[in-house]
């Protein structure tokens, strides 16, 4: 089946409906690249034992697999379920920036100063009163 230019353009979205976020005509290839870069960055900069790295790898790998297996943008958006593909690109770009910041902060290292005793007690459930 041959698709005409007019029919093809009719299937493309015209707007994201989000002010300041234009439609990205190359969204899928860009998202693939960003997810691959995220995985490279997190592996290069964050220790394997860090929970942050484990979380980023799990989420990014899952999303990368979805994008690789689907050509249809709407299907990608539906399966990832975290916004439009343009929003997913913004999220991926932000994650790459965060990887560098987390590496700088070394958030996986032990605290320099121990937490004060009873610091988290106010989160415990209050005793029942009768």
User: Helical amount among residues, as a percent range?
Assistant: 55-70%
Rounded mean pLDDT score:
87
Low-confidence stretches: 5-10
Structural class: mainly alpha
Give the termini distance in whole angstroms.
75 Å
Strand portion, in percent?
A: under 5%
Kindly provide the radius of gyration, computed on alpha-carbon positions and rounded to a whole number of angstroms.
21 Å
Written as H for each helix and E for each strand, in order along the chain, the element string is HHHHH
The outline comes out as: extended
> What's the story with the biggest beta sheet?
none
- How many helical stretches? 5
> How many β-strand runs?
0
Topology, please?
Elements: H1 5-11, H2 27-45, H3 51-69, H4 73-80, H5 85-105
Helix pairs in contact: 2-3, 2-5
Describe the structure.
By secondary structure, the protein is an all-alpha fold. The chain has a domain at 51-107. It contains 5 helices and no strands. It has helices at residues 5-11, 27-45, 51-69, 73-80, 85-105. Helix 2 packs antiparallel against helix 3 and helix 2 runs parallel beside helix 5. Residues 5-10 have low confidence and may be disordered.
